[in-house]
Amino acid sequence: MTLKRVVVTGLGALTPIGNTVQEYWNSLSTGVSGAGLITKWDASKHKTKFACEVKGFNPENFIDRKEARKMDPFTQYAVACSAEAIKDARIDASLNPDRIGVIWGAGIGGLRTFHDEVCGYAKGDGTPRFNPFFIPKMIIDISAGYISMINGFRGPNFSTVSACASSSNALVDAYNYIRLGKADIIVTGGSEAAIVESGIGGFNACKALSERNDDPATASRPFDKDRDGFVMGEGAGALVLEEYEHAKRRGATIYAEVIGGGMSADAYHLTAPHPEGLGAKNVMLNVLSDNNTQPEEVDYINVHGTSTPLGDIAELSAIQAVFGEHAYKLNISSTKSMTGHLLGAAGAIEAIASILAIKYQLVPPTINHFTDDDQIDSKLNLTFNKAQSRKITVAMSNTFGFGGHNASVLFRKIEG
To answer: Which residues are registered as beta bridge partners of 11?
Structure first.
């Protein structure tokens, strides 16, 4: 069986550093931090009082007010973000809706809805008074459902859940469904809205978050000696994946070709990475072998790079094991230094960053580097503090999740 080629023909972004793709890229390329004190609720009693919040988002700009009230913020983000990508890809009524699918990722889903409903019940007299939309607002698959219902897409439709690798897994699944001929177009990506009292408190309890409350803007500092955990982010990223010949026939804009999707498991620990980066090593080997890409062909890696003491070291060790001497010729950067960690949506917005790096031939920086870490090879180019221009033909995007879930996606520039 001959596998079909898959390309990216539409992008949408709703992030802590920009509510459109262009705003997002402008901030990425100039090193803007999206972190600040939490404004959505009173975080004064929490160990971590800051996050990377989406700013200035009004769901009613995208969704009827009555319908918006039926949605958790993570679904509102998904609907708004996917609308940008669908418009960008020029998907219209001339296309067969039975051949257009939606595969959407989230790690947590409707946490605000769950938190509010349970807190309301706990404060009551024990009488169950729940919102009739409680369950459909909370469940993770509802975002994919809404995107399909709003747009009339009747192709494959489901959600992927693999913690912080969720939207990368969605991309890999979308890529596979199209190259197997199961769909012509799939809207894919992920959304998350976990900056909630229980979300921040829960990640604090497992000692995952930075507590640099005196200077939130510099708290996400991947690969810095003084990193102390990740910064929570929220938002969404959407990509329209399309079969190459189908895209060519309708004159679609092609951003890049998807040339590989890899997955693996650490099989090691609930929250910690394998100390030798074994799962990370395997997922990168898998994504390279998926389309017989040689390590020397890769120019840029947008790493998972969460700013945790163990995770950053493990990923760089894996990169050196996979790429050998070529590791020193790569540009490596963590855009989480700017966006924070969007959990299940991280893979989507970082895939977009990788694609835009190819488009603009510019590597976005790892900001907030102040002190070298003796455990990190100083010869690696981690693109500290300032974007770097270079020829980028192939870019890799890595994401790893609690439970040992790993996913990696590979993109290639298409000439002409």
So the answer is: 239
Name the pTM for this structure. Answer: 0.97
Catalytic member of 246, 274, 341, 405: 341
The rounded distance, in Å, linking the Cα atoms of 76 and 78 is 5
Residue 304 designated active-site: yes
Q: Which residues of the chain have pLDDT under 50?
A: none
Residue type for 406, please?
N
- Selecting among 52, 81, 115, 164, the annotated active-site residue is 164
343: amino acid identity, one letter:
L
Question: Which one of the listed residues 115, 274, 304, 405 is annotated catalytic?
Answer: 304
Rg (CA), the chain: 20
Alpha helix ranges (H) inside 239-308 = 244-249, 278-289
Q: Give yes or no for a contact between 213 and 270, defined as CB atoms under 8 angstroms apart.
A: no
* Alpha helix (H) residue ranges in 243-388: 244-249, 278-289, 309-323, 336-339, 346-360
Those residues whose C-beta lies under 8 Å from the C-beta of residue 207, and which sit 6 or more positions away, are: 229
Which residues are registered as beta bridge partners of 333? 302
The verdict on whether 164 is a catalytic residue reads yes
Distance CA 305, CA 356 (A): 19
Question: How many CB atoms sit inside 10 A of residue 351's CB?
Answer: 30
Tokens found for residue 295: 């390590």
Residue 219: count other Cβ atoms within 10 Å of its Cβ.
Answer: 27
Phi, psi dihedral angles at 94 (to 5 degrees):
-75, -15
CB 236 within 8 A of CB 345: yes
Q: Which tokens hold the place of 123? A: 């404060």
Q: Which residues pair with 191 in a beta bridge?
A: 236
Q: Which tokens go with 212?
A: 């640099």
Instruction: Name the phi and psi angles at 206, rounded to 5.
Output: -95, 15
Spatial neighbors of 262 by CB under 8 A, at least 6 apart, are 172, 283, 284, 285, 286, 287, 288, 289, 290, 406, 407, 408, 409, 410
pLDDT tens digits, 320-358 = 999 999 999 999 999 999 999 999 999 999 999 999 999
